[in-house]
Amino acid sequence: MKKDIIFNVIKNSPNSLTAEEIYNDVSQDIDVNLSTVYRTLNNLVEKDLVTKVVRQDKIAYYELANSEPKHYLICDKCNNAYSTDMCDLDKIARKIKRETGFNITSHTLEFHGICPECLKNVK
Amino acid sequence: MKKDIIFNVIKNSPNSLTAEEIYNDVSQDIDVNLSTVYRTLNNLVEKDLVTKVVRQDKIAYYELANSEPKHYLICDKCNNAYSTDMCDLDKIARKIKRETGFNITSHTLEFHGICPECLKNVK
DNA sequence: GTGTACTCGCAAATGATTTGCGTATTTTTT
DNA sequence: AAAAAATACGCAAATCATTTGCGAGTACAC
C-alpha cells in the first residue's frame, strides 16, 4: 500500500523532506492524494518510524526516526539545510536532567546563517 | 503610538509571548486590532528589537532581542516552556564556523520532555 | 493648507495541514 | 468464499496562524 511507498521515500532520502516534496516524489510512481500523504505521515510519526520537525519557516520536515540527531545548518540565503552532528547535546541534556529534573526525550537545534556557497556569491 | 505599547509588553515579559498573548494583553489597555499586532511585531523583528522563534507547535513566539539565547525546555504535557542557558552552543557554533565555513548568525534549541511538575502527576 | 508618510481597522486572502464523508480495498470472522 | 469489520483513500471543505489590500484617519513637513 501507499504507506510503504511513502515510507521508502523517506528512508532513501539523505535529508529531511517536506510533505510536498514527498508528494511530488511519490506522485511520479503512483497516483496519490496530498491528504493521503499527510495522513500517512502522521501515522508514521505516531508509530515512531518517522520524525517530524517544524523549522523556523513553519514547514514540517520529515525524516527517518532514530536517524542521527536533528541538527541543522540552514542558510538564510539559499534556504538549504545541511545537517551536522557536530554538537554534544546529549551531554548537555543529561546535565539539564540532572540539575533540573526535567525529563528530556528529544531536542531540535537549528543554526541559521549563510552557507559557504552563498558567502562566495555575496562578494 | 501602539508600537510602543506592544513593545513594552514584550520588554516587560519574562518569557516569550505569542501574538495572541500580546494582543490579549494590549487589548486590556487600548483598542487594537490583531492585524496591527502582527504588523507591529514584524516591524519590530525587522528592526532587530524583537526576536521571533517558531516552535514545534508551529506558533511564533516573540521576545526581546538580545535577551538571553533561545533555549527552551518544553513540557509535552503542560506545554509550558522554561528557558535555560545551560548550554554552550556558542563554542559549538564557533567550531562549526571554523570547520565548515558556514557563517552562523543565530540558532534555536528546543528540548522536549516532561517537566518535574508533570512527572509528579503522572505517578 | 496641502502633500507625503505612517498608522490602523476591517474583511478577505494565504498556505500548510486537517477533517468529514462517502467509496474502495483489505482483513478478519464465520 | 461470502459477510462483516476495519482500513485506506480521494475529494472538497474546513482550520488556524498569519498576511495583505484597501480605504480612512492622523501626523509631520514645506
Keywords:
homodimer; 123 residues; alpha+beta; 3-stranded antiparallel beta sheet; 5 helices; 44% helix; flat; DNA-binding
What does this structure look like?
- 2 copies of one chain form a homodimer.
- Chain A is of the alpha+beta class.
- In chain A, 44% of the residues lie in helices and 26% in strands.
- The first copy, chain A, contains 5 helices and 6 strands; from the N terminus they run H-E-H-H-E-E-E-E-H-E-H.
- Chain A has helices at residues 2-12, 19-29, 34-46, 89-100, 116-122, and strands spanning 17-18, 50-54, 60-64, 71-75, 81-83, 103-114.
- Chain A has a 3-stranded antiparallel sheet with strand order 1-3-2. In chain A, strands 5-4-6 form a 3-stranded mixed sheet.
- In chain A, a hairpin with a 5-residue loop joins strand 4 and strand 5.
- In chain A, helix 1 (2-12) crosses helix 2 (19-29) and helix 2 packs across helix 3.
- Chain A is flat and about 50 Å long.
- The N and C termini of chain A lie far apart (50 Å).
- In chain A, 28% of the residues are buried.
- The model of chain A has no long low-confidence stretch (mean pLDDT 86).
- Chains A and B meet through helix 4 and strand 6 of A and helix 4 and strand 6 of B.
- Chain A binds a DNA duplex (30 and 30 nucleotides) through residues 1-3, 18-20, 31-36, 38-40, 42, 58-60.
